[in-house]
């Protein structure tokens, strides 16, 4: 059993309590069933089921009202007290002849209701003692106590029924229930109450006032859970009727019938105990909660099929065996785990309600079905099998549906850790928005503030709707120069009336923005008609006028070499470059900017030499302008120079934005530079930020190649690549991520993470040992190991974010790094449910181990065997020094030099031939220390 220190006492007490409860149930159940059947016969069972449902509804209503005003402990103790008193009363009045029928009905009802009420209260108490992760480990051993109690109770009923009689069995059961009161009190005071005081959660007014059935109806998870419970009870009632009816027909004597029931009920529990001890935990771990819940309905479907083919007590016993052995083992564990993600406050209000009312109401429905089938249609017990099969199939569907709801329940617990959704931009083509834009343009007065108009012109620049043309044309006479210029720019892009005569006077506008907008319009729409005017602008000595003309002409003649030659643009460009040295600095700067723009937009070799010179210049402003010009050209010759600028902070944002514009051309060009080793590592670490914006499958391939083929040892590059891949997974979900490669990387990161945890745990224990200098060196190594562990965990979850929805992985990662223990537990449990089986077996034990070892103080509190720790440290240090992490190697070598352990001399001597000079120097210094200590 996977029971950890500090859990044994609570686990054993709970195990004893459920052992006693189920033992009492299995002592009284054969007595109640046999006594009832001997008095009324199997034909009365449907009525008993209906009566049980009615009484259960009354008890559930009273129970729900009680938990509003009293603590769960007080309600549980009162419930146990009433059960003990009524059971004792039945034993006292049993000899009275007139009361036998009343006792038969009352005892049958007591057994039916005690089984669900006491068990529900017990599991509620157990879930308050243990958290989710503890529950998954310990509910199996605790449940084994229930099955062992069932074995003992059944065999006691079988052995003692004919020896001491029914009355003494009831007195024995009463005596066995008494210790449960004291166990409940002890567990509450020592395990539940301290936790409630430490982390008390208040009811909201809405939740406190809500009725349990309203809470259930508002939750798909709880509705499906109720459906599974109800269908299991209905099916079980039908199977139990078949078993009881056929057994009653075979054994007429009540004592023989009691012995038969006692034997088989105990046998069911023996098999259930074996399943619980040997298979339950393995099945839940391998196929999950929903997979574990499939076994019982599948087994009952098979039993119904056998009953249909080979009717008889044997087939009925098989079905009852499946129900009896799985229901209190595998199925019970699965159902209790379905309650785990439910909020504790909600669970307190609905769990007993579900366990008692839904269970009993379903039993009542089963009784009505039996009345309809047996009394109404005259169907024999054999003919009920198709109905059993029908309900079992619906049950299977509910189990399949609840898996996603189970996941959603855990998602809801971590919803505060989910990344916030980005707001989507306004759709400028929305009818109402367009109407608003048009209204602003139509109502714009010539002397009004142009800021709102400028905003509308900017938002409608890409729209080609003809209704905007006339209002924008009127803005050419607006008082604001910015509005006039922007309006003309907008009209240049539209199909509209010829504006030559209206635009030509605008070349004389005092505002340079209007001049340039007019020049742009004339170049793009009336190059030949306005040639003299454009030539005058081109020959103007001012850069803001002549430079703008040069840029417009270069761009307009980009695909027309004849026209470019006619305008002599190459000669003009060269003359302006030669004249730069003769111009004052301010004018030269303005001309250099214009010439760079012209070189970028030329689309030909024009200006390439000038652009290359400026890219390698020392003036940051000019280099930034050159980067933007290179981006406008989209010539592949600039890719390598631009990549080389990624490591320089002043140029990085410009280089990134420009390289993104190269799109697939960049992705195709990079492998050649990588194979030739031209790109520096510092530049390469910034490259994933560029590649993450290029939506293509080849980008994904290249990113994986960076960490697998070209630079597999660099941790910083690995993290940047994973960040880029995560961004692509988020922004371009249609791209395919290679599952095999991802799993291989997860496996490698998981092994590294395990090593990091062991290193941290060993160093945490060794921190207090040695002299002050050694302790300081160990402390530095410990901090570095913590950083490496954090980075390792980050990379591990980023890899899982490539395989699973990031909206699920991100809250889990944040939850595991949160300060609160409950958030860590919720995150780990959600991850356990989310992961596929191969990854679950790999990652979940690792995360659990990491949480346990994260607290260095906790690690130091354990018993420390120095010799064993030094052996662990030796293995870990040897692995680190044989690895590729240079910083970690330096920290380890520094510790070894101060530690003075000669066992490390061969490893340190190997480090003398390391490729990194720092490692060689540190190793040489450490070896000198070792030799000096040895000589002394």
TrEMBL record:
Its main location: membrane. One of its GO terms (cellular component) is membrane. The chain crosses the membrane at residues 12-32, 44-65, 77-96, 102-126, 138-157, 169-188, 222-239, 259-279, 291-310, 353-374, 381-402. Pfam families: HEAT_2, TLC. Gene3D superfamilies: Leucine-rich Repeat Variant, MFS general substrate transporter like domains. Coiled coil: none annotated. It is found in: Membrane. The keyword Transmembrane applies. This is ADP,ATP carrier protein. It comes from Neolewinella lacunae.
């Amino acid at each position: 059993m996977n029971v950890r220190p500090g859990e044994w006492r609570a686990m054993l007490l709970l195990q004893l309590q459920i052992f006693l409860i189920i033992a009492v149930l299995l002592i009284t159940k054969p007595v109640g069933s046999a006594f009832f059947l001997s008095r009324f016969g199997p034909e009365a069972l449907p009525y008993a089921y209906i009566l049980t449902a009615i009484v259960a509804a009354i008890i559930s209503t009273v129970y729900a009202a009680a938990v509003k005003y009293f603590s769960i402990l007080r309600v549980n103790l009162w419930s146990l007290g009433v059960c003990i008193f009524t059971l004792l009363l039945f034993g006292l009045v049993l000899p009275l002849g007139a009361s036998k029928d009343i006792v038969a009905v009352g005892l049958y009802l007591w057994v039916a209701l005690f089984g669900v009420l006491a068990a529900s209260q017990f599991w509620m108490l157990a879930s308050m003692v243990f958290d989710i992760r503890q529950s998954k480990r310990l509910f199996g051993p605790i449940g084994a106590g229930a099955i062992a109690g069932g074995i003992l109770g059944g065999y006691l009923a079988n052995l003692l029924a004919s020896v001491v009689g029914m009355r003494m069995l009831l007195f024995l059961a009463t005596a066995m229930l008494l210790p449960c009161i004291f166990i409940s009190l002890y567990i509450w005071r020592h395990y539940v109450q301290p936790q409630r005081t430490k982390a008390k959660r208040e009811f909201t007014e809405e939740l406190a006032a809500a009725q349990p059935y309203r809470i259930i109806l508002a939750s798909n998870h709880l509705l499906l859970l109720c459906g599974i419970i109800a269908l299991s009870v209905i099916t079980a009632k039908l199977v139990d009727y078949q078993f009881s009816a056929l057994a009653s027909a075979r054994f007429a004597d009540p004592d023989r019938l009691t012995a038969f029931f006692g034997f088989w009920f105990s046998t069911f529990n023996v098999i259930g105990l074996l399943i619980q001890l040997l298979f339950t935990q393995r099945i839940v771990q391998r196929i999950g909660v929903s997979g574990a819940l499939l076994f019982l309905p599948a087994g009952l479907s098979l039993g119904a099929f056998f009953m249909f083919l080979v009717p008889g007590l044997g087939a009925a016993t098989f079905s009852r065996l499946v129900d009896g052995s799985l229901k209190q083992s595998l199925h019970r564990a699965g159902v209790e785990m379905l309650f785990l993600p439910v909020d504790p406050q909600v669970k307190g209000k609905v769990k007993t309600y579900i366990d008692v009312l839904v269970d009993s109401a379903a039993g009542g429905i089963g009784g009505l079905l039996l009345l309809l089938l047996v009394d109404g249609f005259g169907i024999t017990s054999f003919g009920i099998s198709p109905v059993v099969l029908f309900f079992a199939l619906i049950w299977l569907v509910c189990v399949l549906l609840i898996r996603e709801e189970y996941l959603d329940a855990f998602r809801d617990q971590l919803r505060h850790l989910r990344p916030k959704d980005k707001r989507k931009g306004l759709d400028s083509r929305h009818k109402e928005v367009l109407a608003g834009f048009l209204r602003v343009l139509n109502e714009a007065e010539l002397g009004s503030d142009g800021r709102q108009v400028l905003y509308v012109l900017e938002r409608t620049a890409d729209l080609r709707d003809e209704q905007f043309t006339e209002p924008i044309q009127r803005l050419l006479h607006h008082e604001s120069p910015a509005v006039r210029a922007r309006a003309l720019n907008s009209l240049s892009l539209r199909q509209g009336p010829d504006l030559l005569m209206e635009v030509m006077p605008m070349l004389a506008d005092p505002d340079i923005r209007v001049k340039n907008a007019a020049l742009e319009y004339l170049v793009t729409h009336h190059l030949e008609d306005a040639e003299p005017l454009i030539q005058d602008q081109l020959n103007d000595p001012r850069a803001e006028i002549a430079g703008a003309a040069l840029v417009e002409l270069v761009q307009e003649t980009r695909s027309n070499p004849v026209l470019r030659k006619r305008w002599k643009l190459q000669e003009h460009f060269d003359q302006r470059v030669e004249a730069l040295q003769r111009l004052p600095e301010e004018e030269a700067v303005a001309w250099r900017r214009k010439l760079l723009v012209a070189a970028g937009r030329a689309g030909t070799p024009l200006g390439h030499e000038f652009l290359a010179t400026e890219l390698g210049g020392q003036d940051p402003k000019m280099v930034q302008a050159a980067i933007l010009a290179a981006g406008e050209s989209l010539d592949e010759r600039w890719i390598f120079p631009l990549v080389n600028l990624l490591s320089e902070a002043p140029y990085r944002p410009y280089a990134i934005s420009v390289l993104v514009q190269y799109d697939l051309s960049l992705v195709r060009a990079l492998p050649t530079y990588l194979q030739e080793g031209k790109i520096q590592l510092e530049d390469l670490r910034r490259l994933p930020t560029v590649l993450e914006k290029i939506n293509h499958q080849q980008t994904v391939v290249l990113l994986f190649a960076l960490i697998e083929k070209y630079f597999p040892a660099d941790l910083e590059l690995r993290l940047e690549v994973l960040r880029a891949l995560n961004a692509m997974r988020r922004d371009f979900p249609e791209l395919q991520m290679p599952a095999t490669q991802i799993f291989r990387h997860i496996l490698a990161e998981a092994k590294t993470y395990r090593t990091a945890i062991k290193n941290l745990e060993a160093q945490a224990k060794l921190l207090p040992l040695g002299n002050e200098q050694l302790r300081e060196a160990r402390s530095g190594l410990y901090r570095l190991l913590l950083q490496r562990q954090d980075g390792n965990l980050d990379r591990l979850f980023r890899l899982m974010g490539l395989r699973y929805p990031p909206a699920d992985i991100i809250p889990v990662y944040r939850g595991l790094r949160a300060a609160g223990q409950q958030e860590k537990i919720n995150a780990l449990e959600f991850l356990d449910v989310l992961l596929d089986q191969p990854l679950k077996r790999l990652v979940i034990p690792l995360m659990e181990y990491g949480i346990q070892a994260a607290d260095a103080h906790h690690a130091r509190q354990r018993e420390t065997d120095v010799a064993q720790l030094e052996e662990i440290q030796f293995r870990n240090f040897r692995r680190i020094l044989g690895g590729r992490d240079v910083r970690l190697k330096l920290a380890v070598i520094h510790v070894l030099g101060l530690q003075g352990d000669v066992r490390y001399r061969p490893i340190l001597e190997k480090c003398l031939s390391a490729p990194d000079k720092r490692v060689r120097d540190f190793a040489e210094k450490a070896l000198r220390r070792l030799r000096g200590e040895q000589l002394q």
